């Protein structure tokens, strides 16, 4: 990979997914440095590995990839389901396991057209439509657990990881909608023009992922 001609530009969210993905890259590529400048910079070049990272908001990662500013992206399946961007989903990196669930107060009584608060209005609307349930979806941008506590919504659709946020706010997980992991996505043109490099990286990732499965 490090001897290839091109630089692979990879869009990633800041924070935990970035750290876990970099850890995977270190295991996948001997040329990947042990450390590099981690500051508030939003573009980080790693010439040793012929890579450059664009650090974006999680929901914006598929946009950078669709428009070809990034060849690849690392992003949660939850965001792919919501954003519906024209990108190829090429690998399940099997990191940041969590689930997208429906939750609410334990004493919640079913009503006609309950209000559902979520950061995922498209996913939630499609899911309840498929179930034949009429709901009013309210889009929020964060701290979704607040909505049922203060009476804004009857239920929420949100990410549950450890379950701690629900528990500490007296909420109950009612149904798991989707199991979520982090995925590698590719720009459709990059996948054709940088096939060898991208497939080489996928093979390296796969070896690390399989090793992890064996442990
Ligand atoms: C996410 C999610 C939940 C929480 C779940 O929020 O929306 O609130 O993590 O994690 P847990 O099950 O381990 O408690 P995030 O921290 O991304 O912030 P947000 O509330 O602003 O979306």
What characteristics describe this protein?
215 residues, elongated, D-Maltodextrin-Binding Protein, domain 2, six-stranded mixed β-sheet, binds 1-O-pyrophosphono-5-O-phosphono-alpha-D-ribofuranose
List the helices and strands and how they pair.
Elements: E1 8-13, H1 16-28, E2 43-46, E3 51-56, H2 61-66, E4 72-76, H3 77-83, E5 88-92, E6 98-104, E7 115-118, H4 121-130, E8 136-139, H5 146-150, E9 155-160, H6 164-168, E10 172-180, E11 182-186, H7 188-193, H8 195-214
Parallel strand pairs: 1-3, 1-4, 7-8, 7-9
Antiparallel strand pairs: 2-3, 4-11, 5-11, 6-9, 6-10
Helix pairs in contact: 1-8
The structure holds 1-O-pyrophosphono-5-O-phosphono-alpha-D-ribofuranose (PRP).
1-O-pyrophosphono-5-O-phosphono-alpha-D-ribofuranose (PRP) is lined by residues 142-145, 158-165.
Quick overview of this protein structure:
The protein has 8 helices and 11 strands.
Strand content: 25-35%
Named CATH architecture of the largest domain: 3-Layer(aba) Sandwich
Identify the strand order in the major beta sheet: 2-3-1-4-11-5
In helices, the fraction of residues equals 25-40%
Please outline the major beta sheet.
6 strands, mixed
Which regions have little confidence, pLDDT < 50, spanning 5+ residues?
none
């Amino acid at each position: 990979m490090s001897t290839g001609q091109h630089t692979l530009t990879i869009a990633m969210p800041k924070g935990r997914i970035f750290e876990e993905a970099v850890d995977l890259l270190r295991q996948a590529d001997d040329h990947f440095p042990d450390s590099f400048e981690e500051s508030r910079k939003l573009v980080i070049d790693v010439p040793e590995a012929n890579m450059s990272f664009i650090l974006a908001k999680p929901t914006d990662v598929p946009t950078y990839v669709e428009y070809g500013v990034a060849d690849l992206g690392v992003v949660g399946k939850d965001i792919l389901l919501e954003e519906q961007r024209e990108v190829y989903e090429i690998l399940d990196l099997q990191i940041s396991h969590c689930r997208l669930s429906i939750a609410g107060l334990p004493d919640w009584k079913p009503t006609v057209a309950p209000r559902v608060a979520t950061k995922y209005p498209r996913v939630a609307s499609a899911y309840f439509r498929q179930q034949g349930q009429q709901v009013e979806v309210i889009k929020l941008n964060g701290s979704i657990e607040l909505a049922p506590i203060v009476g804004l919504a009857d239920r929420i659709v949100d990410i549950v990881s450890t379950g701690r946020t629900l528990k500490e706010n007296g909420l109950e997980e009612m149904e798991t909608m989707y199991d979520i992991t982090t995925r590698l996505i590719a720009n459709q043109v990059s996948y054709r023009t940088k096939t060898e490099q991208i497939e080489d990286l996928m093979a390296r990732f796969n070896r690390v992922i399989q090793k992890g499965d064996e442990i």
